[in-house]
Design a protein that fits this description.
This protein has about 190 residues and is of the alpha+beta class. The chain has a single domain, classed as tt1808, chain A (Alpha-Beta Complex). The chain has a six-stranded mixed β-sheet with strand order 3-6-9-10-11-12, sandwiched between helices. Helix 4 links the parallel strand 9 and strand 10. It is globular and about 45 Å long.
Length: about 190
């Protein structure tokens, strides 16, 4: 394949129909038709993900809402161009009709992303806009380096920052509060 042909292929606008034909072991997202490759997560990232998932999963037993850890496809604009597919670290979906055999079609109620050096800007700027535009109600950004959690209530524009020792109320799940100590349990102080 010539250099020009490779460039044209890279510049192609992809949709979910293209995305589902790719190898399962390729970790990527589709952002407005462009492919964004994803690196394997670090052990620290996975520990935080597991800790948060456990608290959410335990709270949601017997309830309508369900929690899904990465890798879980979320198709944000399924009713239009179908060219946005993200794999958030955590997704909470309270409408069972949005779940199908491939993931979530439409906006989850809550999404949490765990920052890494390579995703910081993407999670704070690009995904924040995508999530707000899609109608996601609550967005968490977890920073393992500074050991903080920023909670954005995207419908109202409210933002809260939580630190060591704090307890985070989950706004979309009445009665659930998650201690920061649970999220960062067994995560080394210095990363």
């Amino acid at each position: 394949m010539s250099a020009l042909a490779r460039r044209v292929e890279l510049m192609k606008h992809y949709t979910y129909a293209d995305y589902i034909t790719w190898e399962d072991d390729v970790r990527c997202e589709l952002i407005n038709g462009e492919v964004r490759m994803m690196a394997a997560p670090s052990p620290t990232h996975q520990q935080i993900l597991g800790n948060l998932y456990a608290d959410l999963h335990n709270f949601l037993k017997g309830k309508t809402c369900r929690v899904f850890p990465a890798a879980f496809d979320v198709r944000l604009n399924v009713n239009t161009f179908d060219d946005i597919v993200v794999q958030p670290d955590i997704a909470v979906v309270c409408d069972p009709s949005k779940i199908d055999n491939r993931g979530c079609k439409g906006a989850p109620d809550l999404i949490a992303e765990i920052l890494s050096p390579s995703t910081w800007r993407h999670d704070r700027i690009t995904k924040m806009k995508l999530y707000k535009d899609a109608g996601i109600r609550e967005y968490w950004i977890i920073d393992p380096v500074y050991r903080t959690v920023d909670v954005f209530l995207l419908e109202t524009g409210e933002r809260y920052t939580w630190y060591d020792g704090d307890t985070i109320p989950v706004h979309i799940l009445e009665g659930l509060e998650i201690p920061m100590d649970n999220i960062f349990d067994k995560v080394p102080e210095e990363i």
